[in-house]
Amino acid sequence: MSNFVELSIAKAINAGLRKAMQEDEKVILFGEDVAQLGGVFRVTEGIHAEFGDSRIFNSPIAESGIVGTAIGLAMRGYRPVAEIQFDGFIFPAFNQITTQLAKMQNRSEGFTPMPVVIRVPYGGGIGAVEHHSESPEAYFAHTAGLRVITPSNPNDAYWMIQQAIKSNDPVMFFEPKKRYWQKGPVNLDEPPMGPHQARVLQEGAQVTIATYGPMTAVALQAAEIAASEGTSIEVIDLRSLSPIDFDTIINSVKKTGRLIVASEASTFVSISSEIAARVAEKAFYHLEAPVLRVGGFDVPYPAAKLEEVFLPDADRILEAVDRVLSY
Amino acid sequence: MVQLLSPEGEYGVPKEWAEYGKYIDRLTEADFLKFYRDMARMRRFDREAEALQRQGQLGLWVPAIGQEAAQIGSGYGVGHNDHIFPSYREHGVAITHGIDLMSILKMLRGVNHGGWDPVETRFHLYAIVLGSQVLHATGYAMGVKMDGKVGNGDLENDLAVISYFGDGATAEGDVSESFLFAAINNSPLVFFCQNNQWAISSSVASQTKVPLFQRGEGFGVPGIRIDGNDVLASYAATAKHMDDAREGAGPYMIEALTYRIGAHTTSDDPTKYRDSAEVEYWKARDPLIRFETFLRRQGIGQDFFDEVAEAGEKLSTEIREATFALPQPPTENMFKYVYSEPHPLIDEQLDWLKRYEAGFGEAGHA
Questions:
Q1: Do residues B283 and B337 both lie within one domain?
Q2: Same domain for B338 and B219
Q3: CA–CA separation, B167 vs B158, rounded Å?
Q4: Which one of B126, B340, B341 makes the best mutation probe of the A interface by having the most chain A beta carbons within 10 Å?
């Protein structure tokens, strides 16, 4: 019998971090306000009380410094888990992530692996000011040397953070901040699957929706509405954005013949674009309709009063469902 | 400015620098000869590499002529457990830590991006993005302190970290962030800035309003300026401040005032932006000549200098031959090290490339 508990995504990440820290004393946590406060989203709440200053500490407000020192600590044999407070604050660290963290293993021809995890709360829908609601995942998926994963539910959050910490490659761990308080069952005994596998959340026959992170719940909602109207939709949670589990997507498209890729990110040059190109290449004769992308508009993330217009909702997905079914 | 050897090769320790003088008192004649040998080796290597570049054997060369005293002195001041985070011009420091010089030429020929073992050698890879390595050194030093390897009075096990960077890199935010992180953590780290006075075509005067050795002060990192063309000052300052760092004194900055006699790289043309009179002024302050004068006054005979010249000839021949013999890197190397664990996209593309290449048969493609 497996040991299940009900946790929110935030608490599941917290529990996963604690477990990783208990199992390996080289795992250390740092970032802005992560210690006594527990981070602005309280994801690391209580960890300082349990593990103390030597394992979790606040960093100065200097994102490049956070990632640059994480690289040095990894060289020293630590397994740093660094928190970037908000998606929109990651850019001061962009240089260290893309030119150093991602390339160190390659530059050193394998002498210097980089077991570093960068945790990033991402996505919108929380009524925030500018730079607090972005979806920058494509920049990192585009960068060779990084692994990019994102959980959409508490069980994945609990296990994927531990898998990220165990990886000897750098992992960008994107946390859907709007869903931090979403609860669900967590199996404390057994991981559901590897961190780079996609999961078919719901089987269906007519249309596949591939999605990830914060949009997963929206896709499920759209599928439910569609089902009530007699349309059978298969929903895939990608979980990993680099590498992408194309086999799971292509197998689904071979069955349904129609694919919609949904995310909060602006669609131009996005994860969705890559999936559309791949599926066109690998499943061309199985497609009954063009692959459609549903996502944010190609504008800067808008002010909070407009974000509901910017972010795709179930209706925007259903509009795409109607379009793919019209072919 | 700490100077123990005058431009005329006269050795003397002013009272205020007595702490540094102690480090020279411990040196033997054999140490002095080793310093000179390696300074000459560094220069010979540099000249040969530049010639190889001019003949199309290297894609680029990054000369360090004029900086031999700063680098060889400092390199020997680093202890046997300490870790070194270089920029991309530290060929002399590499020599003092046993890096195979062909590893450096391999990079500049385009065989790889580095590829020596930074753990075994304690000499980390060259960093081309200015200032990036200073943060890595800072993180490493934080780790050393977390490991309790500082301030135990145990010189066999304690260690410190040194990062090399140039005057140009001091403008990078990463260097300022490094000062801050190192200061608040009281990290065992020495910031060694070789001020060679030119960042490609920008003079140091155009890049800073305060002397560089004072740059760390507001962050809590004290500093000192040394004569970077004085190998003994560079050795003593590095050795002392690494000792202090190892003993728990926290970070410190050394600015070694030197001069880049050559171009920034072989792609540069310094005649466009600086006076030849300035270059001549510094050529007259050549660190090798200064140290040679000192050694001759110490009674070192011509035999030694002949032997060094002969070793230089031998090095040149060896390097030329080894460069010509460098093989084309295997295509797989482009894919092999991107990740430490399998990655389907990489595997798929390598597999495709192999089939594509095989499609051309024995003749290969154009």
A1: no
A2: no
A3: 30
A4: B340
